[in-house]
Write a structure and sequence with these properties.
Blueprint (H helix, E strand, L loop, with lengths): L2 E7 L6 E7 L2 E5 L1 E5 L10 H6 L5 E3 L1 H6 L3 H6 L3 H4 L6 E3 L4 H8 L8 E2 L19 E3 L4 E4 L6 E4 L1 H11 L3 E3 L11 H25 L6 E6 L5 H12 L5 E4 L3 E2 L3 H9 L8 E3 L5 H9 L4 E3 L2 H7 L2 E2 L6 E2 L19 H5 L2 H9 L3 H27 L3 H12 L3
Parallel strand pairs: 4-5, 4-16, 5-6, 6-11, 7-14, 11-12, 12-13, 13-15, 15-16
Antiparallel strand pairs: 1-2, 2-3, 8-9, 9-10, 17-18
């Protein structure tokens, strides 16, 4: 079971620096959790993940269930040893796929939207044609994106799969809703998520008799303050080891919506904001009291040639970089910047070489991991607001 301690609280904000002790190591928070969806961080070896000083890796329950199957992963020692990662681990519940294969499938809808994109959707998000997931109070029926076969996830099934995957920290099964879903649907979904939280907790306790895994409850409720606060009170009152904050936000109020929740959740348990990796969102979430974050964005962006720098993002495919023999960032110490030029990386992308994704991913993960480390340091030395303002001014040129 995890042990969470708070080392420093930043006066005037909800930001805090702390640590989480798991059976596979200690995590210093705030921390960015590296996503290894299928027990692999795309384009990187485990040695490269370690060299980036990553603290914890998260894998996807739904994807590992489909391929290679949780029993194979269990026989391999759990997803950490299976991929040769021996540090702290997490698995999500599969609940996000209720959204990505349901409301979001084929609709270009993101779980984090701009306020101008929010429209009331009076149709149930799972009554539309062409989707690969259908939700009932019992669970979620998935149509595999690999072969079209039907699968049914219940809270109990998710707990059984995650138990076999063997992560240190797991999540209760929940429904991630679309930001376009109506208030009425968000309310109905919240009631369902509370029911699933209780069922997840009960099955987890039956399985984990040796108390080797910690379980996080998931807070939903869309961007509605009353629903978010209701979720924080009800799910926060259950015997979870920590809490995930999930579901749909707008980019304009992510810090506000997270703060509604964290003012109510138990202070002595860690809070994980699910699926967030934009620098500004990380600052706002820390300021609102979050401790952990995970997102595929750093590596996904990298594979498409979009690279983080302190002066903002660059597209390394642009013509101007083909003869630029400087580093991506002159003061960056990552492997990519220490050994290769912008011109070389631009060449790799233009030539469709696999190494392009590896080098760009190394830099982007290094950038985000160091950013969150610096945020932690700024909390400890009480310079958080100064660091936030200076970073944002340069990165977003505001």
């Amino acid at each position: 079971m995890l042990k969470f301690s708070i080392e420093k609280k930043l006066e005037g904000t909800m930001a805090r620096a702390g640590s989480i002790e798991t059976k596979n190591g200690v995590i210093k928070t705030p921390v960015f959790v590296v996503v290894g969806t299928k027990a692999t961080v795309k384009a990187l070896t485990v040695e490269q993940i370690k060299s980036l000083e990553s603290q914890v890796v998260l894998a996807n329950t739904y994807h590992l269930y489909l391929q290679p199957g949780e029993k194979i992963v269990k026989d391999g020692g759990g997803f950490g040893p299976f991929m040769n990662w021996h540090g702290p681990t997490m698995t999500d519940s599969g609940g996000f796929q209720a959204f990505s294969l349901g409301a979001a499938f084929g609709n270009n809808v993101s779980k984090v939207a701009k306020s101008t994109e929010i429209e009331t959707d009076n149709i149930s998000q799972f009554d539309k044609d062409g989707q690969l997931a259908k939700v009932t109070d019992e669970g979620v029926e998935f149509k595999s994106h690999l072969d079209g076969k039907l699968h049914f996830f219940t809270p109990e099934k998710s707990m059984e799969i995650q138990y076999d995957l063997g992560a240190d920290m797991i999540f209760a099964f929940d429904e991630c809703t679309s930001p376009t879903a109506s208030y009425e649907y968000q309310k109905k979904s919240l009631d369902r998520t509370l029911l699933w939280a209780k069922r997840s907790l009960n099955r987890h306790e039956e399985l984990d008799t040796k108390k080797e895994q910690s379980i996080f409850g998931v807070i939903q409720g869309g961007r509605h303050q009353d629903l978010r606060e209701e979720a924080a009170r009800t799910i926060g009152g259950l015997d979870f080891d920590g809490f995930g904050i999930g579901g749909s936000f707008t980019k304009d109020d992510i810090g506000t919506a997270v703060a509604w929740v964290n003012k109510i959740l138990p202070e002595d348990k860690p809070r994980h904001l699910l699926g967030i990796g934009e620098p500004l969102d990380l600052f706002n979430a820390v300021e609102a009291g979050c401790d952990l974050f995970d997102c595929v964005a750093p590596t996904r962006m990298a594979r498409h040639g979009t690279i983080h720098t302190k002066d903002g993002r660059i597209n390394i495919r642009n013509q101007k970089f083909t003869t630029d023999f400087g580093k991506i960032e002159s003061d960056c110490t990552c492997y990519t910047c220490s050994n290769h030029t912008r011109a070389y990386i631009a060449h790799l992308f233009r030539a469709d070489e696999m190494l392009a994704s590896t080098l760009a991913s190394i830099h982007n993960l290094h950038f985000i991991l160091r950013l969150v480390e610096n945020i932690r340091a700024s909390i400890l030395d009480e310079t958080f607001m100064e660091y936030k303002n200076s970073f944002i001014k340069k990165y977003y040129k505001s």
